[in-house]
């Protein structure tokens, strides 16, 4: 074919496409109309106008993607939440509902989000061009990940503060001789010696058991009086803690310089931030199992209680933990997948990442409970009295455990450094997902040389300003509002439900399975499609309604009840993401023209990107994939591009 003034023809060898082509099926359209409709036989495809801005960057090597996903999905929840849930819900028995829900809910959606990002080559908003009517799913995930980025980093700021304070001969939370300690502070509790009503103590003199019970640990006083300097309630914000504020600022600066250059730099940083925590976990496990009481602690972690399987709460806890630890519904997995090569085998990647995620959670339980068993033995109490979850484990239980070890500053520094790294990679990948979604909204004509660096700076600065409300004396109450409502189980379950419904019933599960086959060269196991279509949506809605029916008002430390207006703020945070989906659907249908059927057909027609045309051939279907050979004439794609 000869070139003309209007059109140029580019023949792309099959080797560049790695054998997999996308047929130009009816109903396919693109933003510039290049892929719209099936057309008559022999008709010339309308020219594709190529934008003048750079192509979407990809990972330098596929291991960069694997490590980024590991860093994002494997986070604090694997270390401080899963072991406690396992102990609370019947020990080893908890693995049964955990694995079942993981297979029926977690892995299918985890794979769906990665595959969707890879296929559409877009972030969490534009990826829903696959069904534009439901683009509210993208806005919803952006709201959720923004809230997560805002409050999650506070845990890192507290961990950074503890890490800095660990570099001292005597840990500041080990004694009662500090300005922030009260008169009720007691360094040692020996409840097993409290038999006859009194206990002799060389430091505090004779104390009754009642007085001993009312004593406060220096660890708790350091956390509440020094780090949080907590006020009476949400209505009393108080003053800012400048030391924690500086730690927060330093953490945001680290996140900025990890993200500002994109996945080329992020993919390298996660090699350290994602792997080093495993080194620390192994070191802590070796140390933990050598401590007295460690064996009893591990037994409590694993001892099966088969009666727990009859409890609905056990299954709900398993489902909630799966969705939390797999980081589903945040849009970040979609963003990471969008930087993959089009023909990357994301199916195997998803299965491998799910195995790493769940395996890390199980392994971390041995580390945590070996140390908690030692802590219970040292204090002479039952392990149920020292078993903690969440911040209680990180900032109360473990700091107490290291004070009982020789060379305690070393173990404290190691633990909080691991905590910092576990959270950091989750944080900057979350920011990466948010920035990717924002930048994908800009058309090419608005491309600027430093737009990414500027966008990341604006995002980090704005989040830091919001975070200032959490470093005040009432900041812990604000933190809990964000944690309980903005990225709670209900919002993530709502998001996951609609993702499955849109892909399976609006776009078509079989159709998307064909798209995946064109990317990876084979169809995934059929149970993936069954889960997307029926099983996973039912699991999501079942857990969602259980949460809704059993909703309890938020409290702090089981004593402080939030005021009505505080609870209202929490529901505003939750609904701000959940309502994005139905609001966008109603708005788009209202603005469209024609009958309802015509509006629906128009608004659910996929809008393809330019990269889809590169893999398009009108005469190719999914069954012909295996027959294509690298050197055959059929294995070429003709691209039309306008000559500007």
Automatic annotation (TrEMBL):
Annotated disulfide bonds: 176-185
Family membership: Belongs to the sodium:neurotransmitter symporter (SNF) (TC 2.A.22) family.
Keyword set, alphabetical order: Disulfide bond, Membrane, Metal-binding, Sodium, Symport, Transmembrane, Transmembrane helix, Transport
UniProt-recorded name of the protein: Transporter
Cellular localisation: Membrane
Membrane topology: Multi-pass membrane protein
The UniProt record lists the keyword Isomerase: no
């Amino acid at each position: 074919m000869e070139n003309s003034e209007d059109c140029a023809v580019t023949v792309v060898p099959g080797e560049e496409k790695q054998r997999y082509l996308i047929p130009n099926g009816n109903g396919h359209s693109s933003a510039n109309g290049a892929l719209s409709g099936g057309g008559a036989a022999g008709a010339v495809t309308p020219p594709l106008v190529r934008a003048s801005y750079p192509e979407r960057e990809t990972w330098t090597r596929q291991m960069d993607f694997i490590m980024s996903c590991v860093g994002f999905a494997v986070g604090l929840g694997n270390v401080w939440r899963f072991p406690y849930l396992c102990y609370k819900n019947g020990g080893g028995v908890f693995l049964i509902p955990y694995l079942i829900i993981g297979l029926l809910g977690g892995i299918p959606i985890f794979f769906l989000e990665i595959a969707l990002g890879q296929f559409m080559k877009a972030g969490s908003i534009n990826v829903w061009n696959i069904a534009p009517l439901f683009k509210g799913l993208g806005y919803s995930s952006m709201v959720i990940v923004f809230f997560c980025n805002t409050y999650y980093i506070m845990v890192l700021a507290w961990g950074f503060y503890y890490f800095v304070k660990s570099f001292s001969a005597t840990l500041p939370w080990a004694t009662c001789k500090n300005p922030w300690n009260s008169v009720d502070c007691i360094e040692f509790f020996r409840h097993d010696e409290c038999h006859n009503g009194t206990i002799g103590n060389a430091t505090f003199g004779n104390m009754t058991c009642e007085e001993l019970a009312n004593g406060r640990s220096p660890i708790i006083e350091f956390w509440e009086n020094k780090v949080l300097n907590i006020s009476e309630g949400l209505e009393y914000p108080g003053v800012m803690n400048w030391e924690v504020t500086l730690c927060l600022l330093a953490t945001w600066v680290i996140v900025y310089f990890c993200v500002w250059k994109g996945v080329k730099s992020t993919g390298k940083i996660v090699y350290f931030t994602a792997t080093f925590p495993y080194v620390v976990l192994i070191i802590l496990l070796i140390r933990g199992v050598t401590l007295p009481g460690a064996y009893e602690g591990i037994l409590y972690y694993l001892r099966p209680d088969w009666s727990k399987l009859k409890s609905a709460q056990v299954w709900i806890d398993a489902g909630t933990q799966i969705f939390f630890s797999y980081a589903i519904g945040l849009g970040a997995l979609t963003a990471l997948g969008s930087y993959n090569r089009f023909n990357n085998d994301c199916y195997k990647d998803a299965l491998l990442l799910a195995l790493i995620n769940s395996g890390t959670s199980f392994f971390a339980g041995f580390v945590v409970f070996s140390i908690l068993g030692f802590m219970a033995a040292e204090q002479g109490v039952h392990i149920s009295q020292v078993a903690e979850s969440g911040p209680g484990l990180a900032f109360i239980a473990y700091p107490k455990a290291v004070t009982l070890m020789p060379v305690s500053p070393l173990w404290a520094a190691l633990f909080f450094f691991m905590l910092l790294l576990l959270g950091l990679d989750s944080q900057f990948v979350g920011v990466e997902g948010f920035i990717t979604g924002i930048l994908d909204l800009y058309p090419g004509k608005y491309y600027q040389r430093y737009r990414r660096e500027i966008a990341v700076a604006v995002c980090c600065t704005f989040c830091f300003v919001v975070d200032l409300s959490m470093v005040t004396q009432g900041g812990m109450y604000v933190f809990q509002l964000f944690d309980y409502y903005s990225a709670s189980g209900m919002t993530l379950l709502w998001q996951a439900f609609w993702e499955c419904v849109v892909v399976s019933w609006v776009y078509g599960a079989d159709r998307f399975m064909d798209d995946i086959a064109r990317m990876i060269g084979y169809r995934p196991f059929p149970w993936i499609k069954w889960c997307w279509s029926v099983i996973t949506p039912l699991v999501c809605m079942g857990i969602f309604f259980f949460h809704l029916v059993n909703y309890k008002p938020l409290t702090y430390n089981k004593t402080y009840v939030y005021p009505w207006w505080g609870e209202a703020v929490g529901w505003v945070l939750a609904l701000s993401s959940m309502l994005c989906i139905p609001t966008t659907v109603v708005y788009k249908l209202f603005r469209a023209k024609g009958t309802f059927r015509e509006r629906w057909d128009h608004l659910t027609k996929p809008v393809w990107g330019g990269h889809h045309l590169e893999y398009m051939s009108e005469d190719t279907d999914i069954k012909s994939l295996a027959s294509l050979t690298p050197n055959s004439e059929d294995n070429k794609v003709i691209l039309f591009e306008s000559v500007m």
